[in-house]
Specification:
single chain, 398 residues, mainly alpha, Arc Repressor Mutant, subunit A, 3 domains, two-stranded antiparallel ribbon, 61% helix
Length: 398
């Protein structure tokens, strides 16, 4: 039992949120919080931290180690949106709990009114937990799949294939069966049965208070069916096709890499067969002779001094690089190049503009492309250039 006031506990979580987050991250990674890690975290945040964590029942002892209590762990999961995909077996257990409660409700229909109402409320709670787990699983699987598709972690093709196949086989297809209303053993089909029963009882049950509980349960199940249908569509229309594309693309690329390593292992079309040929033409001798013969007759050369003025501008890369470094971060790189030249010249030639934009290839710069595909127009003396809007920042050194 917690003796502290609820406001005191909430104020503690607000003040020492970093402590609770550290405990959450260690437990999420290792499954528990070792005594050494717990002592280190408490030592870093003050001598009274151990007693407060135990007083507010944030952690509990597991032998010599510790773990966060489930209510705090789930709160941090929700706040940080750090959900791990659950195996469908974990979610499917709700079918047993819902079926058992539904059976007891039907049997105790004419028994004690308070017990019946309590069972209806418990059934509603089980349904709520089931929907929450399904939504969290679908969201996390979608996020993991999109990360795999964009290959943020630079995963090799073979590993991408294994991951995509693993998620399809052990997570997505079983979860889809759980949500399939046409499958007689699915949780969703059981919820439809409960919904039909609650619909009848909310209209003809003799006790008004119990009718009200059935009404609440029926309304909840109508919304639940809509939510589960939405999650099922995400699995069917987005997740499975996306993972299948990853698996197909990766298999093709992996197979072609294997072919390049040993191209003669299997019979292939003539298009892919290597052939031996000369690196120069057969009539190369005559072409080379013709080329040099044109210089045997020297044509008169006339040199005239031109009085015309021309721009002797030479691109100082170091100077412009220093200017760019002083201006970073730059939200519009090409616009910055144009403005930098405009300070020195009234008219900007295209070759000058391109010389400055060559800074873009510097390895010390990080380039971010606009997600909205924003573009800008740059007008030089001879052209109007339509270029993308690029954000330039210093590259992060690892």
């Amino acid at each position: 039992m917690i003796k502290a006031e609820p406001r005191t506990i909430l104020n503690f979580l607000n003040t020492y949120f970093d402590v609770v987050r550290d405990l959450f991250e260690y437990q999420q990674q290792d499954g528990l919080i070792t005594k050494e890690v717990f002592d280190m975290i408490c030592h870093k945040h003050g001598a009274q931290m151990k007693s407060r964590l135990r007083e507010y029942r944030v952690v509990r002892s597991i032998g010599s180690d510790f773990e966060m209590r489930d209510v705090y762990f789930k709160l941090m999961e929700f706040l940080l949106f750090e959900f791990k995909p659950l195996l469908p077996e974990t979610i499917e257990k709700y079918k047993g709990a819902i079926s058992e409660l539904f059976m007891k409700i039907r049997k105790s229909e004419h028994s004690d009114r308070d017990i019946l109402q309590e069972r209806i409320k418990n059934l509603s709670g089980q349904v709520r937990e089931f929907v929450d787990l399904v939504e969290r699983n679908a969201f996390r699987l979608l996020a993991e799949t999109r990360d795999l598709k964009s290959n943020i972690d630079r995963v090799q093709y073979r590993e991408k294939v294994h991951k995509a196949s693993f998620w399809i086989e052990y997570y997505i297809l079983p979860l889809n069966r759980i949500l399939d209303v046409n499958h007689s053993e699915s949780v969703t089909s059981k919820l439809v049965e409960v919904c039909e029963y609650a619909n009848r009882k909310r209209l003809d049950y003799s006790d008004e208070t119990t009718r009200s509980e059935y009404e609440k349960l029926y309304t909840q199940l109508i919304q639940t069916n809509q939510d589960l249908l939405k999650q099922s569509k995400i699995l069917t229309n987005e997740l499975i096709p996306l993972l299948e594309r990853i698996r197909t693309e990766s298999l093709i690329l992996t197979g072609f890499i294997e072919f390049l390593r040993n191209p003669y292992k299997v019979e292939t079309p003539p298009l892919l067969k290597g052939t031996r040929t000369m690196v120069y033409a057969k009539d190369m001798y005559f072409k080379v002779r013709e080329f040099f013969e044109q210089f045997q007759i020297e044509a008169p050369v006339i040199v005239e001094n031109s009085e015309a003025d021309f721009d002797r501008w030479i691109f100082d890369r170091t100077l412009f690089k220093e200017k760019l470094a002083a201006s970073m971060p730059v939200n519009d790189f090409f616009g910055w190049c144009f403005k930098a030249l405009k300070k020195d010249f009234d008219q900007i030639e295209t070759d000058k503009f391109f010389a400055v934009t060559g800074l873009l290839f510097d390895e010390e710069l990080q380039i971010d492309y606009s997600k909205k595909s924003d573009r800008v127009s740059i007008e030089t003396t001879t052209s109007i250039l339509d270029v993308p809007k690029l954000k330039i920042e210093p590259a992060i050194k690892l």
